[in-house]
Write a structure and sequence with these properties.
The complex is a heterodimer of chains A (352) and B (142). Chain A is α/β, with parallel strands linked by helices and 352 residues long. Chain A contains 13 helices and 15 strands. Chain A is 34% helix and 25% strand. Chain B has a domain of 89 residues. The chains are: A alpha/beta (352), B mainly beta (142).
């Protein structure tokens, strides 16, 4: 029996900031062709406020996941925080969230980094930790206030959001894992050097040898390992750096658009990096029915992808209404201009 | 460093979770926490965290001259709130709201936010602010 089958998702939750920047503002300021946002299939991006960061967003996503889990926070034995926008370069974010949620002190806690898939690596590690009996429950968080060099094409999509999952014993779960598979190589598609404020990327190199190669191979690995076929899945969620790539990779793997659209959040809020694929899963769990099977395939630059097969149980119905849904946050929005966005994200240099 | 590190650390449970003391005799919540109930004088009090309660706005003030460390959050909005379950009064900053959106009786909920930071290299201070419950205030355009 695979270790995954004894582990499931006990609670899930997301967070999206209220503020939205219409991408037309970026195109206008930096002189891009007006149709650029349409080419990316993204309309607006979520922007964290001046008093928000990856920790505060991760806290709210985790609070929502705990509401759905319905467990005593003290029972959590690990808090793993995946991000590439840590508020501190040195000092764990995970301990701040663990303390603020009443999980400390009898717990593991650390931050993970692997571009956009640190949170997903945390999820795979948590499966191992729960399956082995090392911990009863683990709290996995993916949260980012994604940075982009102002005027770079990346600025259109780099957004802010967070998603958290509580993993634990399958018998208590709203959805159980069937199998998981990881595919990583050393591929230099996107990086940020130490002390640099913004990441750089290899333009077109981010697509074929990075995003597509790794996701396709992770999903193929999962399908070969399990004997499952594309038709066995009701939903497919991929990492969503823009609104086009997930649909393109789905087509390549044979998934129809209808199975991808329910988990496609980037057109409304942009790419929230470590929350990018996970918020798609979160939105599907908000509406999923018992017995449905979900394919989850996050991707992180540098590069790697994980593929998970997840089956929804009867317990999902009692949990769906216990916390705000992804769509509640998508609909909570207030449009801002570029100047406000620049202030909120610290793009304007001040002496402090 | 401009702000005391030990003080921030010592008060972290009050900042993060609104740590308070609930009187076992009269049921009132003492916030800030006290070992003697300031309402009935009892010394039988238990730990209580106000972060589990929503609250309503009673009154508020908009502060334009920001103190040191708060310049980027100008204007600050500070509200007098009453929690919905234990009717505890609390003074806290509001967030995710514009001055023109505030009104009496608006229901708000506690969230963790960056309240201030000690210049570029010092500590970031996290604490509780209140924001309108999801879905309670509108958007500006479609």
């Amino acid at each position: 029996m695979r270790p995954e089958t004894s582990v499931g998702i006990i609670g899930w939750g997301s967070y999206i900031p209220r503020w939205r920047l219409p991408l037309s503002e970026i195109a206008k300021l930096w002189g891009f062709a007006p149709e650029t946002p349409r080419g990316l299939n993204v309309v607006e991006k979520a922007v964290a406020g001046r008093d928000e960061d990856a920790v505060t967003m991760g806290w709210e996503a985790a609070r929502n996941a705990l509401l759905r889990a319905g467990i005593d926070p003290k029972e959590i034995g690990a808090v793993w925080f995946g991000t590439e926008s840590k508020p501190y370069a040195v000092k764990p974010s995970a301990t701040i969230i663990a303390e603020a949620l009443g999980i400390t002190p009898d717990t593991m806690a650390t931050d993970l980094e692997f571009a956009c898939r640190a949170g997903s690596e945390a999820l795979r590690i948590s499966i191992g930790a729960v399956a082995s009996g090392l911990v009863k429950y683990a709290l996995v968080i993916g949260s980012d206030t994604a940075q982009a060099n102002p005027g770079d094409i990346l600025e259109f999509t780099a957004s802010s959001a967070a998603t958290a999952l509580v993993t634990g014993p399958a018998r208590e779960a709203a959805a159980v894992f069937e199998a998981s598979y990881t595919y990583v190589t050393d591929t230099p598609d996107f990086w940020r050097r130490a002390h640099q404020p913004y990441p750089l990327h290899g333009e077109g190199f981010t697509g074929e040898p990075a995003y597509f190669h790794h996701i396709v191979n992770a999903v193929k690995g999962l399908l070969e390992q399990t004997g499952l076929k594309v038709d066995d899945f009701d939903y497919a969620v991929f990492h969503q750096p823009n609104g086009k790539f997930p649909l393109a990779v789905a087509k390549r793997l044979g998934f129809p658009k209808e199975k991808v659209l329910p988990g496609l959040v980037t057109p409304y809020i942009g790419n929230s990096y470590n929350s990018s694929a996970l918020i798609g899963l979160s939105r599907i769990l908000d509406i999923a029915k018992p017995g449905q099977r979900i394919l989850l395939a996050p991707f992180g630059s540098g590069a790697g992808s994980d593929a998970y097969s997840i089956v929804v149980t009867d317990k999902i119905l009692e949990k769906q209404g216990k916390a705000p849904k992804v769509d509640d946050y998508i609909n909570r929005k207030y449009l801002i201009d570029y100047a406000t966005y620049a202030k909120f994200r610290g793009i304007i240099t001040r002496i402090r | 460093m401009r702000f005391s590190i030990p003080r921030y650390w010592r008060e972290r449970h009050s900042h993060y979770r609104l740590y308070a003391k609930k009187c076992s005799k009269c049921g009132r919540v003492n916030y800030p926490p006290s070992n003697i109930c300031r309402y009935c004088g009892s010394t039988e009090l238990e730990d209580y965290y106000l972060d589990r309660e929503k609250a309503k706005i009673i009154s508020w003030t908009i502060i334009y001259p920001a103190p040191e460390g708060f310049e980027e959050q100008r204007p600050r909005i500070i509200a007098l709130l009453e929690t919905l379950e234990t009717k505890t009064h609390i003074i806290a900053p509001l967030t995710d709201i514009l001055p023109e959106e505030i009104k009496e009786e608006l229901i708000v909920e506690p969230v963790l936010r960056r309240i201030k930071e000690d210049r570029e290299a010092g500590l970031i201070h996290y604490a509780t602010a209140y924001r309108p419950v999801i879905g309670s205030i509108g958007t500006n355009k479609q």
